[in-house]
Design brief:
Blueprint lengths: L2 H23 L1 H8 L2 E2 L18 E4 L2 E4 L7 H4 L5 H6 L7 E2 L26
Length: 123
């Protein structure tokens, strides 16, 4: 494997861990990031193939779907959280992000108190 391929895979692994952490332990911060996301899923299945193919991914020709949709993991529900998540796909994604309005900044105390419910409980 070439160094660039190893670096790309390493970036994907770090991204998976980052998204899992944010979705599981920082749901309020994740929700704020999702507010900046626009577009719709084009069902290309690329996000379900980061590092490995998800065992719940269903192929139907050129369209992909989730076998456990509605019960799928919070990291899946929230993908992509940031532009760098789209970059990890190595291809086109129909989601895009906008920057927060000028002057709007999260205060440190805003992100410390997480809600009691988790995103996997919110549908």
């Amino acid at each position: 494997m070439h160094n660039s391929a190893i670096n790309f895979r390493f970036t994907q692994a770090v991204g998976k861990i980052r998204r899992f952490y944010k979705a599981t332990f920082r749901p309020r911060a994740s929700a704020k990031l999702v507010e900046l996301r626009h577009g719709d899923c084009n069902r290309c299945g690329r996000c379900c193939k980061i590092l490995f193919r998800c065992p719940f991914l269903r192929e139907d020709g050129d369209t992909y779907s989730c076998r456990i949709y509605g019960y799928h993991f919070s990291a899946c529900k929230l993908f992509p959280l940031e532009q760098r998540d789209i970059d990890e796909l190595g291809g086109d994604c129909t989601y895009y992000f906008t920057n927060p309005p000028a002057g709007v900044h999260a205060r440190p105390g805003d992100l410390k108190q997480e809600p009691r419910e988790r995103l996997w409980q919110i549908s």
